[in-house]
Amino acid sequence: MTFNATTVAAAAAHAAQTTTQQLYANIDLTKLSWLEQMWAAWYIWIDNPIIATGLMSFLLHEFVYFGRSIPWIIIDSIPYFRQWKLQPNKVPTAQEQWECTKMVLFSHFTIELPAIWLFHPMAENFGMNTWQVPFPSWTTMVPQIAIFFVFEDMFHYFAHQALHYGPLYKHIHKIHHKYSAPFGLAAEYAHPAEVFILGTGTIAGPVLYCWYTRNLHIFTVYIWITLRLFQAIDAHSGYDFPWSLQHIIPFWSGAEHHDFHHMAFTNNFSTSFRWCDRIFGTDNKYREYRARISAQKAAMKNKSKSERDEAERKLIAEIEAEGQRAEAIAEGIMPASKTVKAQ
């Protein structure tokens, strides 16, 4: 008997088709939840696990990212909300929002979309469940997601600091710092290399966990990615509401924490939590700024609103000017001085 490439390819295709048709042969789908039934129906309908996982991963990212960004676009267009905007004199224009959207879409379709088809083979190679139902219990998923949050925050802290190093900043990270007053859509406004570097922290946690435990479902990963996208977009929103999460969970970073990073260039390199910045002392300028804000509000308590706003504007302008000098030092445009040190 002789074999050729055509025969082997045909046999492989037939095996894949048979496997797809038999994925749920021994599972009573009627006993599953509605969501689990929809999950199985998706894989049966696509009839190819690799395509089903890749397409679902891409669509999830697009729907969550832009779906979460739209409310912030609406808020930016309503003057009433300016009272909670961290940099109230810098509201993104429609043109800026559109330019940012085009850059984000370019990154999604040229970097993420081609690579996402490798996700299913990689996931299964590390022992991750993909098409399988039922889903794991909440008692299983919640600790896993908590681990992913901590891992990503630490990874991002050190990788983000590295991106502030001269050449890496000048040629990669500078794009993300285009907006000194960020807005929701700008969360993924970045150089493709930065998308890959910082995105590694989001994916590496689940992959390493799965490799070590052999106990992870991609549904858990999707919940994690959804929460991570919410965190990133909200941190770039530019708003600090009384009900924002950082006022409920003290160690949560939030927009109030990350907005300072964009304004001052230095400090606050972490994502979800404040721990790393506090431990390594990279929040000193931020804490000084917050102390000055509090002292200024107390001193101007009996002043008019216009006077308070003007004082706040001047303080923000001062911090931003310091940030511009620190950025110039990072790029090598300006020599380092004793008064401005990049953290």
UniProtKB/TrEMBL annotation:
GO terms for cellular component: membrane. It is found in: Membrane. Residues 146-282 form the Fatty acid hydroxylase domain. Its main location: membrane. InterPro entries: Fatty_acid_hydroxylase (IPR006694), Sterol_Desaturase_Related (IPR050307). Pfam families: FA_hydroxylase. GO terms for biological process: lipid biosynthetic process. Keywords: Membrane, Transmembrane, Transmembrane helix. This is Fatty acid hydroxylase domain-containing protein. The lineage of its organism: Eukaryota, Fungi, Dikarya, Basidiomycota, Agaricomycotina. GO terms for molecular function: iron ion binding; oxidoreductase activity. It comes from the Eukaryota.
